């Protein structure tokens, strides 16, 4: 049967303008099946953060900066070779503006420079991440080369 049909009476009929959608539906179903089969095979990219168990051990001599929940700062030198009465071993209350100068003094008391002496930030768990990053940025701008974050181990201590 052609696109133009004739009636028995000899009158001509117009051409049929129908679109056959069955092949399109078949193609869509095949594509749907392909996507359904391949979707579980694609693994999303995961960020692998270090755990406390696999973190490296902190150096023996560090300058520790404590950031408390009330946003006060304390700095002290952790040095096993220092004499027990050394004032740099005692925590010193410090402002954010004077932090760089205090860290330089504590690094000099350990016999090193800002490039040599690592600084460890110990922040309370209730402190915002943004505040810790601001402190880290302030230390980097002051010239500290090695900055780390203190974490609590499985025993609850640092």
Can you describe this structure?
It is a single chain. The protein has 158 residues and is α/β, with parallel strands linked by helices. The chain is 26% helix and 15% strand. The protein has 3 helices and 5 strands, in the order αβββαβαβ. It has helices at 22-38, 99-109, 129-141; strands at residues 62-67, 73-78, 92-94, 119-123, 147-149. It has a 5-stranded mixed beta sheet, covered by helices on one side. It is rod-shaped, with a radius of gyration of 35 Å. The N and C termini lie far apart (87 Å). The relative contact order is 0.13.
Shape: rod-shaped
Mean pLDDT: 78
Number of strands: 5
Q: Tell me the distance between the termini.
A: 87 Å
Report on the biggest sheet. 5 strands, mixed
Helix content: 25-40%
Low-pLDDT residue intervals, each spanning 5 or more residues:
154-158
**Main sheet: which strands, in order across?**
3-2-1-4-5
Radius of gyration: 35 Å
Classify the secondary structure makeup into a structural class: alpha/beta
- Listing every helix as H and every strand as E from the N terminus to the C terminus, the arrangement reads HEEEHEHE
Strand content: 5-15%
Number of helices: 3
């Amino acid at each position: 049967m052609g696109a133009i049909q004739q009636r028995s009476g000899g009158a001509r009929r117009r051409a049929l303008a129908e679109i056959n959608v069955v092949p399109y539906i078949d193609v869509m179903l095949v594509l749907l099946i392909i996507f359904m089969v391949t979707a579980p095979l694609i693994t999303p990219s995961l960020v692998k953060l270090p755990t406390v168990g696999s973190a490296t051990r902190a150096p023996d001599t560090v300058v520790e900066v404590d950031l408390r929940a009330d946003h006060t700062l304390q700095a002290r030198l952790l040095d096993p070779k220092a004499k027990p009465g050394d004032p740099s071993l005692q925590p010193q209350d410090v402002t954010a503006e004077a932090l760089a100068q205090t860290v330089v003094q504590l690094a000099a008391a350990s016999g090193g420079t800002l490039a040599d002496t690592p600084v460890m930030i110990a922040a309370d768990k209730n402190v915002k991440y943004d505040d810790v990053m601001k402190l880290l940025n302030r230390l980097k701008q002051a010239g500290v080369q090695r900055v780390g974050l203190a974490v609590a181990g499985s025993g609850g201590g640092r």
